[in-house]
Design goal:
The protein is α+β, with helices and mostly antiparallel strands. The protein contains 9 helices and 21 strands. Helix content is about 30%, strand content about 30%. The strands form 4 sheets. The chain has a 6-stranded mixed beta sheet with strand order 5-8-3-2-13-15, with no helix packed on it. Strands 1-12-4-7-6 form a 5-stranded mixed beta sheet, with no helix packed on it.
Amino acid sequence: MLCVTTASAGEAPQQAIEEKVYELDYTAKLVPDTATATVRIKLRQPRDFLREVRFSIDPERQRDFAGDGQVTMDGDTVTWVPPAKGGGLTYTVKLNHQRKSGAYDSKIETRWALFRGDDLVPPASVTVLKGARSRSRLSLTGPSNWSFLSPYPKDKQGWFVVDWPERGFDRPVGWMVAGKLSVRWADIDGVRVAVAGPRGQGVRSMDILAFLRWNLPVLLQIFPHFQERILIVSAGDPMWRGGLSGPNSLFLHADRPLISANGTSTIVHELMHIAQGYSAEGGDDWIVEGIAEFYTLEIMQRSGTLSKTRYKKGHEQLDAWGEEVSDLQADSSSGARTARAVGVMQALDAELREDSKNVYSLDDVARRLSVESEPVTLERLRQVSKELAGKPLKALSDSRIQDR
């Protein structure tokens, strides 16, 4: 999460500052032999627009920090105070990272690498001159015969343009892939989609694109402000056998089915997270996960991918699974808790439609939450639903949330 602190501009005449823009060049050299990436951040600025950067690091993965100005490390925080006219910061990133299961969610091998931008540039908070903002770009390099792909478009010089309008300090995030790649592109209802993965890893690019041609247009009807471009990266073992979303991107294991036995879909679920663009606050992660999983069935039923019979059976299976859980609230929702949350969302959707005589549905709730760009809470979900229905919803009562 980015946190920006501003400083006073009193020490410089305002008329002398034409643009309060500082430029950041991120370069990452991938080194398969050492399973690392060497990262350099080059700062260019006409004066001290960017005063201080505080990185929240994983000391076991990001190390050997050095640079111009002052660089200090305190536990899992690295503070960089660059010179007023800019300078550079370098460090090393250990790219291989295993989850508790032993599978990898970041990996580099002799022929390919798959990782997230957060691995290269950790979360940061900054102190800047009031009103200052960054202009950022990224360059990935490595073995001479490798290709590189990120969620970002390229400029004429071949740099990835990192632009997050809602942020003052732009850093590269989202999934990235490099190496000897298989890449397929498609334009689906105005969304530029790339599916990429290492050659020989069994990535089913054409299957994924065909599946998205059926279902992405339906998702866009619910979330018309969906991103203009997304990157889907995939690989087989030893990568984690699931799906993980990131900004404008997602990872899907090559062996993961596009449609699961219960009628849900990992890829639609992760696309929903991209569309939602929000996280939960406190113990309300079930809201985010429940909405995402509800729409895996809903979107495929609307697109004709699932029959009404399969759709109904999918809900019945999730409802039975959700019986294992007595309380929805928890820091992290998965499995049975998410299954029960789907039941709550289904009841909320039905109640909204009935009370508004089909004017409103869960679509309207999900869409409004997605454009607010704030953490979701049960209180906010209740408030938005009440505003649409004109009264509190039984589906969101305490008894429904905490105990059947």
